[in-house]
């Protein structure tokens, strides 16, 4: 039995590397395989083996024996690649226990699953051998990372260059046509919405809907088989895993990283009374957060919360991460509702949680990008900026301030004839969110985003005032009510060319801000083309053309994509836009950007102009302090109201002139790099941005 203190990390820091928990799941060897399962409270565990062609036909049962540390073990010649198996677990009755010796359960460490979207799942033994052919991870530095958040199926489901048999599959993303789009765009990493095996909730199935996004994990080690080609699905889980690895290999050969959105905070077993497929039947009390009477403490809003105060449960998550990072060679993880993972045995978040520390300190995860979604729905659930060194965080404060500046502030100004706030808060986000992330962590601790899978698309953000989720079956009650969006006049589709032009410029301003800000930018797939979901800001339950990317584009959409390509290229070419560290007022910091701020007259920004709603124009002068790259300096003009203004370029020591690189006012990116002398007046149209490269004066 496990010592009692091992279930109480706040009392004694547990050893998440206990040797007793090594090699859980199935280990293959000559003569079959050995299965090891952890359950703290089980009284008996049984292996059930099924016919390889009929997952309901039991061909053998083998009892597991306890071997210490809560681990049960059995060896069988039937545990060979292609075998289907399940567990049956018996245990005591009492509050919090859900043992039933008749229920067939999944092995939490299963590398493959078979079955349909019901409770009729089976674990499968998988041959994990794969030839990587010397292809290594790209290991893209954080300052050069540009993340592209995409749905695995939706990205290629309608791609005309991908063969129909590969549409919406792992092989489809590995196809040269899909990779060519990513490379042409200039992104460096694809962040895939959940690809761990997941299920659709019974409520959605009853409505004829599906869990499209995949935030409803059934297993933490098995790839979602419906995303594999028909040929791989027919061949079985080993072929599905091989197709996934082929995708990773192809993306790596192209220099692209693969980041997985992982859901370790809850499972598809939902609330008490929901499906009993794995953890609930193996040791409900240990795996899920509960009150003493057995009622679930739901920190996720999804019915349950996985209990990382149990060391063996934290080890399960660590082992899953190690598997995907090493056996499958993925480059990083975005942790859904990561605050839940950092809650202790009193259910309070602590940045010093053993699991959060272990993820960062684990040598097996060295070099892997770790991105937290720094909130959940529990008490004290909003923790942006609070994660420890080594973690990146989705920066929702950046998202909200940028949306406010370009959208809701403009809406307010139209109604009230005055802007609600000045430009100071926006400038803080542009320069790397130093008020959110410590100097030790630096600007690259923040993953900047304006849109994500959850919420309005970029197009809909500038086209809809309110959400339109009527097709979700919840009477438009689901999804965020506060979107900081602005429709610029009419709601949704319009033929008014003036409104459409203003919306296009608003999208360019949002994209320009995202891709020119300090921090790690994340672009949502389809935003480069202005994709719409017709005002649905919570399209998680639609596996349809509503959510699949369209590859048929109007001229304005192609022009918008050209702006994105230009901005990503300019970011790569100008290290002043991507500092690794925050500047210091007294000493020069290598790999930082020294920032000076000027107003519309070319004068140093005064305190009054930072805060006054009457002054929403600034010039952002950033000079790199390079360590391995040539010196670089840029000037970015931001004008945040709808009245045009004349801006005087600043007279800066050492700068001979400014070369125009990009303007959000242009419908099509301008290739003419026009040069301007310091002190020149530049006409800035309403709500616009313009980027310059500063040319050094000759000595």
Automatic annotation (TrEMBL):
Basic and acidic residues biased stretches: 470-481
Keywords of the record: Glycosidase, Hydrolase
UniProt-listed SMART domains: Aamy (SM00642)
Protein name, UniProt field: Glycogen operon protein
GO MF annotation terms: amylo-alpha-1,6-glucosidase activity
EC number annotated for this UniProt entry: 3.2.1.-
Annotated Glycosyl hydrolase family 13 catalytic domain residues: 124-571
CDD domains, sorted: AmyAc_Glg_debranch, E_set_GDE_Isoamylase_N
Organism: Microbacterium invictum
GO biological process, one term: glycogen catabolic process
Top-level lineage group: Bacteria
Region (Disordered): 470-496
Coiled coil ranges: none
């Amino acid at each position: 039995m496990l010592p009692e203190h091992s279930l109480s990390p706040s009392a004694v820091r547990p050893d998440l590397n206990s040797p007793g928990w090594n090699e859980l799941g199935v280990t293959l060897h000559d003569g079959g395989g050995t299965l090891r399962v952890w359950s703290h409270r089980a009284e008996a565990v049984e292996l059930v083996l099924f016919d390889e062609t009929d997952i309901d036909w039991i061909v053998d049962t083998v009892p597991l024996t306890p071997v210490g540390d809560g681990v049960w073990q059995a060896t069988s010649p039937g545990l060979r690649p292609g075998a289907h198996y399940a567990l049956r677990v018996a245990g005591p009755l009492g509050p919090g226990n859900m043992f039933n010796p008749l229920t067939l359960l999944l092995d939490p460490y299963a590398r493959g699953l078979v079955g349909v979207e019901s409770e009729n799942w089976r674990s499968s033994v998988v041959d994990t051998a794969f030839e990587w052919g010397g292809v290594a991870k790209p290991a893209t530095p954080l300052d050069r990372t540009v993340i592209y958040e995409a749905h695995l199926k939706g990205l290629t489901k309608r791609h005309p260059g991908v063969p129909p048999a590969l549409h919406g599959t792992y092989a489809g993303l590995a196809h040269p046509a899909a990779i060519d789009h990513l490379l042409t765009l200039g992104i460096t990493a694809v962040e895939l919405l959940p690809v761990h095996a997941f299920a659709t909730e019974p409520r959605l199935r009853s409505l004829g809907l599906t869990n499209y996004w995949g935030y409803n994990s059934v297993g933490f080690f098995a790839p979602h088989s419906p995303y594999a080609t028909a040929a791989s699905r027919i061949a079985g889980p080993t072929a599905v895993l091989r197709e996934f690895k082929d995708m990773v290999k192809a993306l790596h050969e192209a220099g692209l990283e693969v980041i997985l959105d992982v859901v370790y905070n809850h499972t598809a077993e939902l609330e008490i009374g929901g499906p009993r497929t794995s953890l609930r039947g193996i040791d409900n009390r240990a795996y899920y957060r509960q009150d003493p009477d057995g009622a679930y403490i739901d920190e996720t809003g999804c019915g349950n919360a996985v209990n990382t105060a149990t060391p063996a449960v934290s080890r399960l998550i660590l082992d899953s991460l190690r598997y995907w990072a090493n056996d499958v060679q993925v480059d990083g993880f975005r942790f859904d509702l990561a605050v839940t993972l950092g809650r202790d045995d009193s259910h309070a978040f602590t940045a010093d949680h053993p699991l959060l520390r272990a993820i960062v300190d684990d040598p097996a995860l060295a070099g892997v990008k770790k991105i937290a979604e720094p909130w959940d729905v529990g008490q004290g659930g909003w923790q942006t900026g609070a994660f420890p060194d080594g973690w990146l965080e989705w920066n929702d404060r950046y998202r909200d301030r940028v949306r406010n500046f370009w959208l809701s502030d403009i809406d307010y100004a139209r109604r009230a004839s005055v802007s609600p706030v000045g430009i100071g808060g926006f400038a803080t986000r542009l320069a790397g969110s130093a008020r959110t992330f410590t100097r030790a962590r630096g600007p690259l601790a923040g993953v900047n985003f304006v849109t994500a899978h959850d919420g309005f698309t970029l197009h809909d953000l500038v086209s809809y005032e309110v959400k339109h989720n009527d097709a979700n079956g919840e009477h438009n009650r689901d999804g965020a009510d506060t979107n900081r969006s602005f429709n610029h006049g009419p709601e949704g589709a319009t033929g008014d060319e003036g409104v459409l032009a203003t919306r296009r410029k608003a999208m360019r301003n949002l994209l320009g801000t995202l891709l020119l800000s300090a921090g790690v930018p994340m672009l949502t797939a389809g935003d480069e083309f202005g994709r719409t979901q017709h005002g649905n800001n919570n399209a998680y339950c639609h596996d349809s053309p509503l959510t699949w990317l369209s590859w048929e584009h109007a001229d304005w959409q192609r022009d918008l994509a050209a702006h994105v390509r230009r901005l990503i290229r300019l970011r790569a070419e100008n290290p002043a836009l991507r500092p690794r560290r925050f500047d210091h007022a007294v000493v020069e910091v290598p790999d930082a950007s020294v920032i000076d701020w000027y107003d519309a007259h070319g004068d140093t920004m005064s305190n009054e102009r930072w805060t006054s709603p009457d002054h929403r124009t600034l010039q952002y002068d950033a000079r790199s302090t390079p360590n391995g790259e040539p010196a670089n300096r840029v000037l970015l003009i931001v004008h945040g109201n709808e009245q045009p203004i004349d801006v005087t370029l600043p007279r800066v020591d050492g700068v001979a002139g400014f070369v125009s690189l990009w303007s959000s006012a242009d419908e099509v990116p301008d290739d003419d790099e026009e040069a301007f002398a310091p002190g020149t007046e530049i006409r800035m149209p309403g709500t616009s941005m313009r980027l310059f490269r500063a040319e050094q004066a000759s000595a």
